[in-house]
Amino acid sequence: MASNAYEEVGLDKLDSFCHEYENLPRGYVTRCFNALMYAIPSLIGEHKRVKTPIGSFYIKPQLLRTMTEDEVVTAKYIWLSGIDFRPTKEFREAVLRQFQSIQIDRRHHPMDTNYYSQRNAELESCLSSDANGNRFVTVNEYSQATGLSAHSARKCLENMTKGDNPILQKTKIGTTNVYTEI
Questions:
Q1: pLDDT tens-digit profile of 75-109?
Q2: Which listed site, 36, 93, 154, 163, has its alpha carbon 20 to 30 Å from 28?
Q3: pTM
Q4: How many whole angstroms separate alpha carbon 158 and alpha carbon 172?
């Protein structure tokens, strides 16, 4: 089953959802968001952090150039590099409770292979020991432990054999590549 995480739900659908399941009057959510679109930028413009039940909003200013201590910093030397949103603990926990049912479509949300290309908990869990005590893993085992495709798992294991301090050493046994811990 493909994920619906890439599908966008607009304000009209959100408003209908809240009307149907929370018994809010039609248009209530839209009016609230319209008010927030006016209020939050005004308050942020006054250098205030705006706290809401789902999280807080604040600006991320950035200096255009390096300033010395004696210089007065005016608005022409500052630009807005973004607006940060920090979700509240309650909101994160509410999302986490729903997270169990989420299935991710990897075409739209590729996995970060940088994490899997270094020593990690998944690698430690799937390393097996041979009779001499050497720990090893195969592409298939690593693929199953991480949820990566065989191609991505092979690429990550190959990355761990390279560099100044490699973690693994690749050995071909028959038709299977075995990656042994160094």
A1: 777 777 778 888 999 998 888 887 766 665 656 65
A2: 93
A3: 0.46
A4: 13
